[in-house]
Design a protein that fits this description.
Largest sheet: none
Shape: globular
Distance between the termini: 28 Å
Helix content: 25-40%
Radius of gyration: 22 Å
Structural class: mainly alpha
Length: 205
């Protein structure tokens, strides 16, 4: 499986464990339209029969979102969790990679993962979207998604130790002997599944 397909899967897995709002965005789910009677854009609601809404005291105006933004809608009137700016996915980051076209179907996944420093590319200007991935690379991406930082000596050593300690790899997925060999599709699916088990984020049912 080539890099661009794997990266889209990793991006989705990372968003599942970060925020349900992130997961919706990664899966391409559009936001729900506002209800017909919802106050949009900070404007007073329309009154029936041409009536005017009551004036606000002291000339106050209804609160508005900056730059015309709208708050996200949550089911059953719930409020979305606040997410620190450092954890916001950077979808509009400028990619340095000359081999990732702006209109490529995987562009947004690459941009988000690069903005969150989950990937670094195969060089300063190349992403190699048609290349393959090793076990060490996939485990390192998941490790960084979980907040880990690379080792100073062998770049994937910390990721391998983290994966072993948390049950993401074990007896049936022990890549210690050849971590830089290409990973198979079946092993990659099991690694991501084990990661979601570790994060207690498996879908119900």
């Amino acid at each position: 499986m080539n890099v661009k397909k794997v990266l889209a899967i990793i991006a989705t897995a990372g968003l599942v464990v970060s925020s349900s709002a992130y997961a919706a965005e990664a899966d391409g789910i559009p936001p729900e339209p506002p209800a017909a009677n919802e106050n949009v854009g900070g404007q007073p609601p329309e009154m029936p029969n041409g009536q005017q809404p009551p004036e606000m005291p002291n000339g106050q105006q209804p609160s508005e979102m900056p730059n015309g933004q709208q708050p996200p809608e949550m089911p059953n009137g719930q409020q979305p969790p606040e997410i620190p700016n450092s954890q916001q996915p950077q979808m509009n980051v400028k990619l340095p990679f000359t081999d990732v076209a702006d209109d490529a179907w995987y562009h947004d996944a690459v941009a988000m993962m690069y903005g969150m420093e989950i990937i670094k590319g195969t060089s300063d200007t190349e992403f190699s979207p048609e290349g393959t991935l090793s076990a060490a690379q996939i485990l390192t991406m998941l490790y960084r998604t979980d907040g880990g930082t690379d080792s100073d000596d062998i770049w994937y050593a910390s990721a391998m130790n983290w994966a072993m300690a948390n049950g993401i790899i074990g007896e049936n997925l022990d890549f210690a002997s050849a971590p830089e060999e290409d990973i198979t599709r079946e092993d990659m699916m099991l690694v991501i599944y084990n990661y979601l088990v570790y994060k207690n984020e498996l879908p119900e049912g």
